[in-house]
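Troubleshooting entry. Yesterday's outputs looked truncated, so today I'm pasting the complete records for two proteins to confirm everything comes through intact. If either block looks cut off, that's the bug. Protein one:
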Amino acid sequence: MAAAGFTVSSASATAQATWTVAPGGPFTAHSGNTQLAVPNAVLTCSDSDAVGTLKSGSGLDGAGIGDIDNLTFTNCSVAGILFTVDTSSALPWKLNVTGVDPNNSNRVLGSISGIVAKIADPDGICTATFAGPSGPTAPGTVTGYYDNGTDQLVIQDGNLTAHNANCLGIINNGDHAAFTGNYDVSPAQNITQD
């Protein structure tokens, strides 16, 4: 999951805040390691890459300030089982700015919404869909922050839930799935509260 580099000029933001993004436009993001932790296991991928776009200009609503247009994961496994991740059914995902971390003004808080992702191994031993809590087609959300000191989007958790799980008891229906990943963003973007 990925977004663009955010630099903030205000120490606080309200729900009514609008934002200025410069330069906006296309971006890429790469994480060298991502994890999706369920109660019985941790699904890991050695690489994840995203391509997206950000709105540009001022007076922008923080909700839907950008899109994830494509997201790929490579070299993924769980409990020794290799699997692929398909994110195509729900793209684009939405990038949202919700405010500034009150404990660290370098960190812009936000989320990525609209998520539905399916995993499967080549032999059909392990399959599952990760989406929102209410069902396999109800989009989920991950949360995190962008640190303008490191130019990384850090995903820490969210409300992803396992559905249609058939994975030897490793993944079960209703499992909360905590997604984590540190994405290096290029080019860095600048977002400020209006």
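Protein two, checking that the full record survives here as well:
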Amino acid sequence: MIHQLTIDTHGPACHEITGQLADWLEGSRVRDGLLTLMIRHTSASLLIQENADPEVQDDLLAWLDRLAPPADHPSMGWITHRYEGPDDMPAHLKAAILPVSLQIPVAGGRMMLGRWQGVYLVEHRRTPHQRQVTALFQPVQD
């Protein structure tokens, strides 16, 4: 089974998509298997991260900005790819260090995430985007 999620973003943020994925799995009446996710973009990422305290996502985004500030920051003068603005190449750098695909075991129709884990689309660009995440469920072969 393949499913396409579309997520509207409005600047750098962690968008939790756990509920959308759970709803799709529940509606599909799947049981046991493996869920594979892939984001179809080069300036956004996927991540399994804590979903209990929103400060975790805020700190993660702040850390990423410290690693790769906008191209107009004095420390980023070496960047040549600037065609889509000062956040373009730093977004590609962030996507290069975070996952763009995930695999999650599914048992009894539920993702086997830990108590405080959620699945996130991490937007790295400042401008609004419509992001697509492809989900593939592969059932366990008996």
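Both blocks look complete. Sanity check on protein two: Helices lie at 18-28, 55-67, 88-97.
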